[in-house]
Design a protein that fits this description.
By secondary structure, the chain is an alpha+beta fold. Helix content is 46%, strand content 24%. A hairpin with a 2-residue loop joins strand 3 and strand 4.
Length: 74
């Protein structure tokens, strides 16, 4: 019984995109591991960018810095 956890930042992933991720992850388990799709569970966890760090800082801060840099470059 596969349990698949997909974590993404909460930045506007659409319902259609979520359905595609669920279908794709399930299909991968069927194709690669010959798992029963009815016994495969997929959970999508949307994480606030304040709670997701990369390179020693929160993604929120990184995005703000990148936006400011792009704004200054115009």
């Amino acid at each position: 019984m596969p349990y698949i956890l997909i974590q993404v930042t909460d930045e506007g992933v659409t319902k259609d995109q979520k359905e595609a991720m669920i279908a794709g992850a399930t299909d991968l388990m069927v194709k690669v591991l010959n798992k029963d799709p009815e016994a495969t569970f997929v959970v999508i966890d949307e994480v606030n960018t304040d709670n997701w760090g990369h390179g020693g800082e929160a993604v929120t801060r990184r995005r703000q810095r990148e936006a400011a840099r792009k704004g200054a470059a115009k």
